[in-house]
What we know:
It contains four helices and two strands. The chain is an alpha+beta fold. It has a two-stranded antiparallel ribbon. Helix 1 crosses helix 3 (about 50-70). The mean pLDDT is about 90.
Amino acid sequence: RLAGIMGAKRTSDLIPLCHPLPLDTVNVTIQLRGNVAVIECECAVTHRTGVEMEALTGASVAALTIYDMVKAISHNVRIEGTVLVAKEGGKRTVGEKEILAD
């Protein structure tokens, strides 16, 4: 969880032309479903922009950290399916149904 939170907060350092935002909330959850880790990262900001890049970066950094932790046991690990579930704010609000239909 900590790696995901740190990743979300450092998004502007990692993604070119992504400006820094004062994040109000970063919540990272990791659920194990069998041998699959499902990572969700939710970010919020009091600003006139969306924070989807911060959420996607947070989830991705958390996934990379899990890989780093388990590689001593096995390199047969895949990171797949990074998906924006919903977005509110910024120029456009995007719901789960709209995203999954794409």
